[in-house]
Design goal:
4 domains, 4 helices, six-stranded antiparallel beta sheet, about 650 residues, Immunoglobulin-like, ten-stranded antiparallel beta sheet, mainly beta
Length: about 650
């Protein structure tokens, strides 16, 4: 029976082995104050857990003027040799023209599903969001396009939200995700324009072209518009019908076609749209579009010459040059600290104890994601905004931004078994449905290692390294049992057998590398495991006792591990089960043969919910011919006496 345990090895830890390690508990009290000296935060204890070589999780227990406080601090160090980044994400609502709110854990899991090769190490809730339809635009969380973020959002270089319902591209922070000392880009932004990026059918980049506006009625010379339905009411979208001799390049089933702002509503003077997908239809004079579709209409002769069926196109609003190269960006509510100084954050939202979500950076290349726990029903009440500034100062955070607070405050972390779990209790008794997450994510090598089978002393792996792109010299499988045994076996695509293992022992295994110019093993992040079988029962003795009408075959076994479930013999293709008592089994066979009795012994043992078989084949016992003939003659005499009287 083939036993499959499949795991995908994850990102390389270039300096030392990681095993979701609890590093230390710091119990020294330290008080930090705000710049004006009016507010403070006292750190009483820190529990530090290493999530990866680059990422640390700190549970900070402390005191504020209101009493005890618990904060979760995730630190991403971009100077370490891991391929990490800060990523934003929102989950689809099941269509290709909208988003949905759900728990942060599900957002993290959806990120991994839609970004193969990346895993989430830790994360917190991100920007505020509009949860319902209406015209208040922030006062009560309503807007005509919902759910959507209060402020801009960029994910994987896709500008999903740029111009917010107030018509502004501000309140957005870009993440450099490089090895620079300061990881964040922020400040008032402007919109550089609406652009179309073109790719051929193989996704080779062809160029960038200006789009004049969304849903233009008429086009002048060298103008381009994108046509796509916009919201008309509560979850209702228009259709677009248009006739023109300019022709239409249609994306009927877009990956995403989403208007987050439009001039169709009286409060807005701005359109905002994101769409990408493959051009699959070209119409010369008319088109009809439903939600989730978009089309390009142009009078630009150069663009008309380029556009073809099968091309991939991305249309989005873009920021000014100051945001060049930024592929991940998220909004914020207030700037808590900038350039190492506290900002004035005193307002009704901030000047009270409140659960808070904060992100920021120091000047050494680290990014911090922080949640301040609290609720009215728990001893931890949350923090004033100024107190959270004091917490930021404790960690040397020079630039800090407050995201969504209150019941939305949530944190997740990847545990030692490779699962995404909540790092903190829910604020409201259950985890609130939110819109966006802010995550520390890591690139992973796509090696596939399968445990094909194992027994008490050896294991067989199937290995596929064909998709691994890391520039390594040699690849290894590290296997250890926690009892002093550790070995690195060089691997490539194919089969690997490791023998001389201990019975009934759990082994962990993980991918490792040696890089060119180095003799050190570099272990990957996550482990998997298997447990060897117990020792199989041993066959000690087989004997035969002959009686007048039957043979009794006795099988003695050595079953010290008590794993035997069944034993028997196979005679002439028929299985005879033995009755086991004190490791001795007996089988009675009628006397229908003489001379050599040929048989097999089949032993069945149970291990970890699976059955293992072992057969001792081509065994034989010499039956007594004389006794058998004597028995037949006696039976014949009795028969004749009965028949003949």
């Amino acid at each position: 029976m083939k036993i499959i345990k499949r795991f995908i090895s994850f990102i390389i830890v270039l300096l030392c082995l990681f095993s979701f390690m609890h590093l230390s508990t710091n119990a020294k009290e330290v008080t930090t104050k705000t710049d004006d000296g009016k507010y403070y935060y006292t750190t009483v204890k820190e529990d530090v857990v290493k999530v990866s070589e680059s990422t640390t999780w700190i549970e900070n227990t402390g005191k504020t003027v209101n009493g005890d406080q618990l904060n979760h601090v995730f630190v991403a160090d971009f100077k370490k040799n891991e391929n990490i980044k800060i990523a934003t994400w929102a989950i689809s609502d099941g269509t290709n023209y909208g988003f949905a709110r759900t728990e942060l854990k599900k957002i993290a899991e959806d990120y991994e599903k839609n970004n193969p090769g990346w895993i989430v190490l830790a994360g917190v809730n991100a920007d505020q969001y509009y949860p319902k339809y209406g015209t208040q635009r922030g006062v009560d969380g309503s807007a005509q396009y919902y759910p959507q973020t209060y402020y801009p959002l960029t994910s994987n270089g896709d500008n999903w939200f740029v111009i917010n319902p107030y018509g502004s591209p501000n309140n957005v922070v870009g993440f450099k995700n490089d090895k620079s000392d300061n990881q964040l880009v922020y400040g008032n932004r402007s919109v550089a324009g609406f652009y179309m990026h073109l790719y051929d059918k193989d996704r080779n980049y062809l160029g960038k072209y200006l789009i004049d506006d969304l849903n233009l009625d008429t086009l002048g010379e060298n103008q381009t518009t994108v046509l796509s339905p916009v919201a008309t009411g509560d979850k209702q979208y228009s259709t677009v019908t248009k006739e023109s001799n300019n022709g239409f390049y249609v994306v009927e089933n877009a990956d995403l076609a989403f208007a987050s702002n439009s001039k169709t509503f009286s409060y807005s003077d701005n359109n905002c749209f994101f769409g990408k997908g493959t051009i699959n239809k070209i119409y010369s004079q008319s088109c009809y579009l439903r939600a989730g579709q978009f089309a390009i209409e142009t009078t630009n002769a150069e663009l008309k010459e380029i556009l073809k069926k099968g091309m991939y196109v991305k249309c989005q609003y873009e920021y000014d040059e100051g945001f060049a190269g930024i592929e991940e960006a998220s909004g914020y509510h207030t700037i808590q600290r900038s350039n190492g100084k506290d900002n004035n954050v005193a307002n009704s939202y901030n000047s009270r104890p409140y659960p808070r979500s904060i992100f920021g950076c120091d000047n050494e290349g680290k990014v911090y994601l922080i949640t301040c726990s609290g609720s009215n029903s728990s001893p931890t009440k949350g923090m004033w905004a100024q107190e959270s500034n004091a917490l930021c100062k404790y960690y040397g955070i020079t630039d800090a931004f407050q995201a969504d607070g209150g019941g939305s405050v949530t944190a997740v972390v990847r545990d030692q078994d490779g699962n995404i779990q909540y790092a903190m209790a829910s604020i409201e008794g259950s985890y609130r449905y939110i819109l966006t997450g802010l995550f520390i994510v890591m690139k992973v090598p796509e090696a596939i290692i399968e445990v094909d089978d194992y027994n008490a002393s050896e294991v067989k792996f199937d290995i596929d390294m064909s998709k691994v792109t890391e520039d390594y010299d040699k690849a290894y499988l590290k296997i250890e049992n926690g009892e002093g045994y550790k070995e690195y076996k060089e691997i490539s695509t194919g089969e690997l057998v490791i023998d001389k293992l201990n019975a009934d022992t759990e082994y962990t295994y993980q991918l490792a590398f040696k890089f060119k110019g180095s003799d050190e093993y570099v272990d990957t992040l996550l482990k998997s495991s298997f447990k060897t079988d117990k020792e199989f029962a041993k066959l000690k003795k087989v004997s035969l006792i002959e009686e007048s009408d039957k043979y009794i075959i006795t099988i003695e076994i050595d079953d010290t591990e008590k794993v035997m479930s069944q034993i028997g013999i196979v005679l002439d293709g028929r299985y005879h089960r033995a009755t086991l008592k004190d490791s001795v089994g007996t089988i009675e066979l009628s006397k229908d043969t003489i001379g050599i009795i040929n048989f097999d012994i089949r032993m069945e043992c149970n291990f970890q919910n699976k059955t293992k078989l072992k057969e001792f084949k081509d065994l034989s016992i010499d039956a007594n011919l004389d006794l058998y003939v004597e028995y037949i003659e006696s039976r014949m005499e009795a028969f004749l006496k009965e028949v003949l009287g």
